[in-house]
Amino acid sequence: MISPDKGIGKWIEDRLPIFEFAKHSLVDYPTPRNLNYWWNFGSLAGITLVIMIVTGIVLAMQYTPHVDYAFDSVERVMRDVNYGWLLRYLHMNGATMFFIVVYIHIFRGLYYGSYKSPRELLWWLGVVILLLMMATAFMGYVLPWGQMSFWATTVITNLFSAVPLVGESIVTWLWGGFAVGNPTLNRFYALHYLLPFVIVGVVILHIWALHTVKSNNPLGIDMKGPQDSIPFHPYYTAKDYFGLGVFLIAYMAIVFFAPNFFGEPDNYIPANPMATPPHIVPEWYFLPYYAILRAIPDKLGGVIAMFGSLLILFVLPWLDRSKVRSARFRPIYKQFFWLFLVDCIVLGWVGANPPEGKFVLIGQVATAYYFSHFLIILPLLGLVEKTKPLPESIAAAVTTTGPPKD
Amino acid sequence: MTAKARPGKTTADEDGASRRDFLILATGAVGGAGAVLSVWPFIHSMNPSADVLALSSTELDISPIEEGQAITIQWRGKPVFVRHRTAAEITAAQDVDVADLRDPESDQKRAEKPEWLILVGVCTHLGCIPLGQKQGDPRGDWNGWFCPCHGSHYDSSGRIRKGPAPKNLEVPPYVFIDDTTVRIG
Q1: Does domain A33-398 bear CATH number 1.20.810.10?
Q2: What is the model's pTM?
Q3: How far off is chain B from A170, nearest CA to CA, in Å?
Q4: Active site residue B150
């Protein structure tokens, strides 16, 4: 074992204090002693990102980014490349797992008020990561060049044609032609390879900001001294490892037993620019935004609402006026939190269905509620909600009264 | 400039401070403008290249298309609808108060010869291909085209009547070379 106190370890440490840095941020990092399992999902997201990059790099070695060969090269990965099926299914379902983990991570932040002062920038960096993830996932979905790849690209890039005056020019620029075609596929491949590394960069900033302001916790109160914290290692490394085991069981169960469960059968039909599939749906993780897009009976309005539903997360720290972070001490917010979660699931369900009949109205009501949650309910709750008394400290709450019940 | 002429500025001028300020500002402005302009080649490289821009035009023999029939051909990578309209469809398209339309346009302006309607078959909402070309396709509430993606209805002149699309189906540039041949593009 290399030690920073002697020999080659000291030689390195004197020139680049990397051991001190690692010990400071991975071992000694003081963590609230009361984190529950909802706090596992940050590290799970990081691990999933690594899995996506590793599987993605080996898949890239087999893939051909050309409209005439892309579909066949993916089928070749599935049939001829050694373990190609495994790598592709890991990558494909890795995207699903990544979004599940990140959505749980976000809703945990919403429940426990992790976006509030002093964690606004930490939250912002998280939203940036989410946006980058969405762009990356979308461009990755295009690469197999099936029917859904092609038509999802057409629909999503056409969103930009709603921009007044320059919309058409923007879309032509995005495509590199007059329709989605080979130039589009090439640039999406280049960006799909690039963006994950940009995400790694923002993740580093996210962790840096986290280690500056320290983790929030289920009580939502600050750590006041050493009695409130425990070192990250071995306590949370052990807890994270256990969570990783559970996560991998679920992930591998999907990869081995239902690898196409989250996919669309239409994407196993090669892209045909002359025929739109009768029912275009995006991947499940985009369904709520797709429902919001379709809820507004106006092209520009729909596009603004869809992007707005994400961008509103940036101003969330200032829309929520309550000084209390954790929903445990906010009896009314707690109910609205669950309503909001249900609303997001309803939007996803509407997004998966054709824009006809009851789905139109349900989609519009759910969209209105989505925005009301941020723009009306949260600011009002900050004024009218009577919060429960906060515990004196983390240590006091978890050692004298036993674990809080909820 | 002598010290006597501008007593207040003496020290700064002798140090060359104001000259340095000017140089920093001037080089900063030129360098900044240059940096911004140098971005253009990178952006413009993503626009359609010369080979893509070398537009093709497509000629089509329309004589085999029976009244009431429609065919789809490809032009610049996009589908183009060519419909031989029936008398009923023409009347329905012309008997519309143009002022009531979302994208007001008379049928006479959209079809050079009333029996031949030629359209770019791309929904103006988000680019799907509307249904209505084939026998048995849903043709929407106005007997034209129906976009399955987000539910836009187009009438028998290809004008938007209901749903999220903002504009009528585009009419491509075309000329009738003779009675049975049309050139698109």
Answers
A1: yes
A2: 0.88
A3: 9
A4: yes
